[in-house]
Structures are given as C-alpha cells and as structure tokens.
Write a structure and sequence with these properties.
The protein has a single domain, classed as Trefoil (Trefoil (Acidic Fibroblast Growth Factor, subunit A)). The chain is about 20% helix and about 25% strand. It is built from five helices and 14 strands. Strand 11 and strand 12 form a beta hairpin. The longest helix is centred in the first third of the chain and has 30 residues. The radius of gyration is 22 Å and the shape is globular. The termini are far apart. Keywords: Signal.
Length: about 250
C-alpha cells in the first residue's frame, strides 16, 4: 500500500515534468524559426537635430577591432565604402540565435530562450605554408572561411562588441529582438542603441547600448564625447549576396 501511494504521488510530478519539457521544445523551436535565422545587415537611421547627423544617417554597421562601428555606404552597392587603401571593412552580417543554456544557470523550465545575436567576423589571413620567398610574394593571400562571434554589450562601458562565447558570457548577451515591424534592433526589450563619436573625421562612430536612456551620462561618456540617438535597422541579405556561413563554436 505504501508503494502504491508513493507511485500515485509521483504521477502528477512526472506528468508536469513531461509537459514542461514539451513546452520547452515548442519555445526552442520558435526561437530558431526561419525568420529569426534569416541573415541581415544593419543600416543606421538617425533623425536628430545635429550638424553631425549626416555622418551617421544612412550609414552601415561594421565589425572592426572587436567592436561595432558605423561606416559610410557605397552608393552603388549599399555595402561599406572602400577606405583610402582600397579595402572595405567587414559589414555586420548575422542573425538571431538562442544563447546556450549552459551559460544561463538557474532558469526554470519551460522558459523563453534568450535570443543572442551572432555575426560573421572579419576574416583573418590563413597561415602560409612552406613556400619559397618568391612564391610568397607573388601568391594571393588566402583567408579562412567566415565564422561566427556573439554580439554583446560591455557591462562596464556599454560598448557593443563581438567575441567568442567565453568572452561574451561575461557581459550583456541579450535578449536581442526586433521591433513590432521586425526592422529595428532591440536589446533587453528596448530600442536603446546610440552612436558615440570616438574619433573625429566621420569614420570614428562606435555603437553603444544606452541602457538608462540618458545618452550614456551614467557611465561618463556624454561629458566627454558626442552621443547621438539612432535606430539600427535590419536589411535582409539577398540570396545572391549571401556568403556561406561557417558556424564554428567559439
């Protein structure tokens, strides 16, 4: 009789756990829908009253030196304009992806997955093989396939950066999302991204997370640098323009 009573008591618990797992699978499936995984680039919309507005409005987000910056667009391609050396910086090219549960402890089940944001990163030159010095000088430099890094907000400075998971998980990794029209980029439920003029000349604007909506006054940026509110808008990467993304767990 005691055994039967214990068995009956365990049934609701088992059913509840099974239902929770089922609901979690549904939530996980929604988080990796085709719409969420569609690759996009980020274009900047800025309508503030500022003499610097033209340096910011209608630019494009790029990745450089582990940070997110904005850059002038080539009017013909809509991609980053080539610099003085003839090279164009690497544009943000990414999509939403659930952040691994292993880095998010103490979450109940079921729970809505925390949507992370990933992007391809600037390619790094592959290590050259044992070629002769002559062949090295004439051969074209080879690059590795693009791989993904996580986009995150630095918890101290609020700069938007990119890096491997081991680095990103120490900072603000999400949740990322989009606005109701599925265009504007949202972090932690708010469209609260700004650009900061770190260097003058039109190409020194970096992207930050303005968590408290005070133009970064609380972290001491506003007193030293120009801060402009803006919107980062998704523009889907058309199929013929899309690179084959090589997903590498980093």
């Amino acid at each position: 009789m005691v055994f039967d009573l214990l068995t009956l008591t365990a049934v609701p618990t088992a059913v509840g756990a099974s239902e929770a797992v089922h609901q979690q699978r549904i939530l996980d499936k929604e988080a990796v829908s085709e719409e969420r995984k569609a690759e996009f680039r980020l274009h900047v919309f800025c309508d503030v009253q500022s003499r610097k507005r033209d340096e910011v409005h209608d630019s494009i987000v790029i990745l450089r030196d582990s940070k997110l910056y904005i850059w002038p667009k080539d009017p013909d391609t809509g991609l980053p304009k080539a610099d003085d050396d003839g090279e164009a910086p690497h544009p943000f090219t990414g999509f939403y992806h659930p952040y691994p549960d292993a880095d998010l402890p103490h979450r109940p089940i079921p729970a809505v997955p925390v949507l992370g944001l990933v992007s391809t990163i600037p390619p790094t030159p592959a290590k050259s093989s044992s070629l002769s010095e002559k062949s090295k000088s004439t051969s074209k430099s080879k690059t590795t396939k693009p791989k993904l890094h996580w986009i995150y907000a630095d918890k101290s400075t609020r700069e938007l950066k990119y890096g491997p998971r081991a680095v990103a998980c120490e900072h603000i990794i999400g949740p990322w999302d989009w606005t109701e029209d599925e265009e504007g980029l949202v972090l932690d439920g708010e469209e609260s991204l700004v650009v900061v003029e770190e260097e003058k000349g039109g190409k020194g604007w970096a992207v930050y997370w303005d968590r408290d909506d005070d133009r970064l006054k609380d972290v001491g940026v506003l007193e030293q640098k120009r801060v402009l509110r803006c919107s980062l808008e998704r523009r889907l990467v058309v199929e013929e323009d899309s690179d084959k993304i090589h997903v590498e767990e980093t």
